[in-house]
Amino acid sequence: MKNIAIMGAGNVGIYAARAVLAAEDMRLCGFIRRREDAVEGFINVPVAASAEGLPVLPDGVIICVPSRRSAAAAKYLLGMGINTVDACDLHNELPRIRRELHEAAVHGGAVAITGAGWDPGLDSAVRALMTAALPCGVTHTQFGPGVSMGHSAAAKAVAGVSDAVSVTIPAGGDRHARRVYAVLKPCADPAAVEHAILHDGYFEHDETQVVFVDDIAPHKSHAHGVEIVREGFAFGEAEQRIAFEMSINNPAATAQIMLAALRAGFRRRPGCYLLPEFSPAELFSGKIENLL
């Protein structure tokens, strides 16, 4: 039985805690968050500002903070020999982040899994399997429509923004448009806020529209989805096609995948891994024969 803590108590953190409570091989030993008051719905679960502040030092931590803060959090935990998993979605930066976390993990004698949400993460594993089956071909990934947690967090972090939601809109051919609904803080400059969002790394490569609203609630949603299609040939046989489609509760799916990855990490040597490097049998507690 592994003692697991959750870092963060937002949408993903709450679902991650529920996932741990439902796991037969794990025990929820606490939340790590800046505010040390009890988390709603988990009154009897300890809360501390640091891992060492919990009554029991966790064996592993599911990191549920914005992607731009996840690597620093992982390094701190790995230095104490605590296994970590995160859902960092900074795709272009993951190779560098992985190298840094690998060094920290080896030094701390622990295991880190990074980029282990549903994309990157589950979708990455699906694309790997598709490529294995059709080695010569092309893969297309189309997201949405749905709310992107990473893009929403980036928009909310912009100075002058009180709250924000970023909606992903499929645009065809692996392209996506973004519509950001934002609530301004008093005296904030709309033009400056819009400029900061449009030039943020999360948005600068996509067509993005910023819409200022008084109430963000009508635009919030946990629904999201993806369609992945690979077309190509194997052994010279052309016109083969593999398709994968998913409609999900974004934070719930992300949390469950991270828990599965953390479980797999306990079976590996110290270092940093990506989700496609694990076999399916490592990701769940049941018998692989039950899936045949």
List the helices and strands and how they pair.
Elements: E1 2-7, H1 11-22, E2 26-32, E3 47-48, E4 60-63, H2 67-78, E5 83-86, H3 94-108, E6 111-113, H4 122-133, E7 136-143, E8 146-147, H5 149-156, E9 161-172, E10 175-184, H6 190-198, E11 207-212, E12 223-234, E13 237-249, H7 250-265, E14 271-273
Parallel strand pairs: 1-2, 1-4, 2-3, 4-5, 5-6, 6-14, 10-11
Antiparallel strand pairs: 7-12, 8-9, 9-10, 12-13
In short:
With 292 residues, this protein is α/β, with parallel strands linked by helices.
Element pattern in H and E: EHEEEHEHEHEEHEEHEEEHE
Structural class, please? alpha/beta
Q: Mind describing the biggest β-sheet?
A: 7 strands, parallel
* Gross morphology: globular
Gyration radius from CA atoms, angstroms = 20 Å
Count helical runs.
7
Low-confidence stretches: none
Give the helix proportion (percent range): 25-40%
Number of strands: 14
* Portion in beta strands: 25-35%
> N- to C-terminal separation?
27 Å
Strand order of the largest sheet: 3-2-1-4-5-6-14
Mean pLDDT: 94
What does this structure look like?
- The structure is a single chain.
- This protein has 292 residues and is α/β, with parallel strands linked by helices.
- The chain has seven helices and 14 strands.
- The chain has helices at 11-22, 67-78, 94-108, 122-133, 149-156, 190-198, 250-265, and strands at 2-7, 26-32, 47-48, 60-63, 83-86, 111-113, 136-143, 146-147, 161-172, 175-184, 207-212, 223-234, 237-249, 271-273.
- The strands form three sheets. A seven-stranded parallel β-sheet has the order 3-2-1-4-5-6-14, sandwiched between helices. The chain has a four-stranded mixed β-sheet with strand order 8-9-10-11, with helices on one face.
- A hairpin with a 2-residue loop joins strand 9 (161-172) and strand 10.
- Helix 2 runs parallel beside helix 3 (94-108).
- The model has no long low-confidence stretch (mean pLDDT 94).
